[in-house]
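Sample intake sheet
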Amino acid sequence: MAGFRSLARQVRDPGCDLALRRYSLRKCLEKFAPYGHRATWNHLCSRAGFGPEDRSPDPARLVAALDELEEARSVWLAYETEFTERRRREKHDGLRRPGSVDDWHRLTWGGFGVAWCDDPRVHPHGPLAEVLRRLIAALEREPGSACPVCAGDRLVWKHDLAHEPSSGPVCTGCGIVVPRPVLTPEALAEARRARLLVSA
């Protein structure tokens, strides 16, 4: 099975058939898809200016989508490297029990679904790398009461999400499932109350 870098080379290779180049970009999302496969695909297509069902997009647009994906991947890989080094230091110092951020991180290792969007049509509009930088910054500071990506404060608790965890606070502004560790207990409780009001 091809890795992310070899798939990226195929996307950039003008000697490859256009269908293969598009297919290779889709396959890259099996390796790294911050919003989930479908939502990340929709995001890249809208940002690069071609339709999700377009079978023969402009090759330059495919490469633009790949560039955005690669930049975001490098941001996430740098975070994972720092995370691994921190855990190693903590274990060396006798801290064996991981915290809530570590529990969340275990579910997103490799970058799949780190900013999960359960509805693939609703996702942040900004560049993927910027979204991940905001999310990482939120993971590294004290919990807050708003979405770390769009700063929206309308969070609603949803069940039966198509990703682990299967329930959680969803930002009604940008559509991400907000990682629980970045929210205060009060913000989580408010999201649960909002769910009850919506379903009533």
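Comment: The longest strand covers residues 155-158. The beta strands are 155-158, 168-171.
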